[in-house]
Amino acid sequence: MKGSVPIVDYKQIEKTTNNFHESNILGEGGFGCVYKAHLDHNLDVAVKKLQCETQNAQREFENEVNLLSKIQHPNIISLLGCSSDGDTRFIVYELMHNGSLETQLHGPSHGSALTWHMRMKIALDTARGLEYLHEHCHPAVIHRDMKSSNILLDSNFNAKLSDFGLAITDGSQSKKNIKLSGTLGYLAPEYLLDGKLTDKSDVYAFGVVLLELLLGRKPVEKLAPAQCQSIVTWAMPQLTDRSKLPSIVDPVIKNTMDLKHLYQVAAVAVLCVQPEPSYRP
Ligand code: ADE
């Protein structure tokens, strides 16, 4: 597809999601829900619905469509098209039948119990997707929101990176006045503390995902909305003086620092530990 984005008929999305009925919701993100729908010839797809009343939402929509339209890789979600209805925009992707890694690892049913072999393969797929963004895209793409809920699994449990709303190209103007964003628990300490954003920020977040795959649990518990708000308003990139931190964020920073160390341990473990000799990624 490289560059051009097919326009999908909105009526078809409306009809095949049963007018966005909640039974067709696959997931929820910052700017809206993702629904299961189908296109002509009964091709099952996933459709992200974005209410684009705010400039931020509009920017995220355009950003994601622009970037994904230029990218084709087996470990990155395929963009199939987009659509609109007034202020509402839709992005149509390939359907990933096994949902997100987060749901597989931490979801309510804990049904799938990923085997060690599957976890190794998911780690490898994720690394391949990231490597493609960092090493083979020109200019390089920084995803900026690497986390288990943005790693999707197809019917064969192949992993693909998704949600490029926050992604930026390395060296772009927008990188210079970037607002702190991403997901707490996955933010690299140098980014959280000094606003230093590089492709290594994604690598740090990938380390946290490795920990999730290894430990089977989230390394950092969810924060209360008030805590998140306090961090977001405080932690602008220009603020580098740790002594100015409100006391509420201190434990979070400490957790994140600890994770840096754990990440190194985890990375070494993933590379070295082979619990069953037959498993070779
Ligand atoms: N959730 C978000 N995007 C998805 C997709 N493409 N397939 C399945 N579930 C999703």
Number of discrete helical segments: 8
**Spans where pLDDT lies below 50 across 5 or more residues:** 228-281
Q: Write the element-wise H/E pattern from the N-terminal end onward.
A: HEEEHEEHHEEEEHHHH
* Percent of residues in beta strands: 15-25%
Bound molecules: adenine
Radius of gyration, taken over Cα atoms and rounded to an integer in Å: 19 Å
Name the helicity range. Answer: 25-40%
Spatially, the strands of the biggest sheet line up as 1-2-3-5-4
Which shape, going by the Cα principal axes? Answer: globular
Give the averaged pLDDT, no decimals: 78
Which quaternary structure do these chains form? Answer: single chain
Largest sheet: 5 strands, antiparallel
Q: Determine the N-to-C terminus distance.
A: 30 Å
Count the E strands: 9
Decide which structural class fits the backbone. Answer: alpha+beta
GO molecular function: ATP binding; protein serine/threonine kinase activity
Domain Protein kinase: 20-281
Protein name: Protein kinase domain-containing protein
Keywords: ATP-binding, Kinase, Membrane, Nucleotide-binding, Serine/threonine-protein kinase, Transferase, Transmembrane, Transmembrane helix
